[in-house]
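call fold target=Alpha/beta hydrolase
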Amino acid sequence: MHIILVPGFWLDGSSWSEVTPPLVAAGHQVHPLTLPGLEAADASRAGIGLREHIDAVVSAIDAIDDRVVLVGHSGGGGIIHGAVDARPDRVIRAVYVDSGPLGEGGVINDELPADGDDVPLPPWEQFEDADLTDLTEELRAAFRARAVPEPRGVAYDQQHLSDERRYGVPATVIACEFPSAQLHEWIEAGHPFVAELGRIKDVEYVDLPTGHWPQFTRPAELGAAILAAVDRTAG
């Protein structure tokens, strides 16, 4: 199976390096993406928005002569959902890692402070305690050293979708910061945050209790959870 891995904000494809070994060992082909503007701290992020990141994922799908599994962490969840909408016949499963699908007109996070075309990684004090669970001082230092500013447009642009076949693509939600029981409660209450998720016909939930960056805090467990979702799909 081909597995396309889309990182969350401030991260490049190498952020999946401790997650991929069990996937590779099981014989799957992994494609960790570095999205436009995330190549280096000094890369230009001018003119790069949400659509450019979605298009980069769609191009990766089109380059593979087979159906694929998409995995998106954090803001990458909104990106892979846009790609599912663009290629609903090519994606066999979407895996949302502490994230979910972003619906029509939604934005990933337009409250993040921007500096021109850049959204730098904020100070840790600006995150919720739940975000930082298990993220030790050593891991925080390593994260900040590798962090690349996110293109402002990716965080601020509205999502635009056009193909309701996206609701027929099976999804897996790996719930870290919020337990799956909380997500179910929000769906039942009609919370707008999970409205798009509630429309997907086939969703499975996997609890992996940790903070918002399980690829750093619990990478082996995250790799196992993704592998299990892929194996269930292949089966």
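return ok
The chain has one domain: 2-234. The beta strands are 2-6, 29-32, 68-73, 91-97, 118-119, 150-151, 171-175, 203-207.
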